[in-house]
Amino acid sequence: MELIATLELILNVKANIDYQPMQTGDVNFTFADNRKLREAINYQPETPLNKGLELFCLWLKDFINDKENESIIT
């Protein structure tokens, strides 16, 4: 829900969430751990979720605008 709440703030919209029952393949929790990968490639993310989503949304808006302008030109 943090992802959705963050996007709502960035985009200044309220998400219309359609809650559904658990689907085949859904998990209640996970024991996923990417520690070995981080150690193997010596990488530690530095961008917080909210900043990364903000930058992505800005990029996506520009990308969509460029594609719309491109179709007008061609």
Please explain how this structure is put together.
- It is built from three helices and no strands.
- It has helices at 2-11, 35-41, 49-73.
- Helix 1 crosses helix 3 (49-73).
- The longest helix has 25 residues, at 49-73.
Explain briefly what this protein structure is:
With 74 residues, the protein is mainly α. It is built from three helices and no strands. Helix content is 57%, strand content 0%.
Core attributes:
mainly alpha; single chain; 3 helices
Helix/strand layout:
Elements: H1 2-11, H2 35-41, H3 49-73
Helix pairs in contact: 1-3
C-alpha Rg, in Å?
Answer: 18 Å
Low-confidence stretches: none
Q: What oligomeric assembly is this protein in?
A: single chain
User: Which sheet architecture does the biggest sheet show?
Assistant: none
Q: Can you give the mean pLDDT?
A: 89
Q: Decide which structural class fits the backbone.
A: mainly alpha
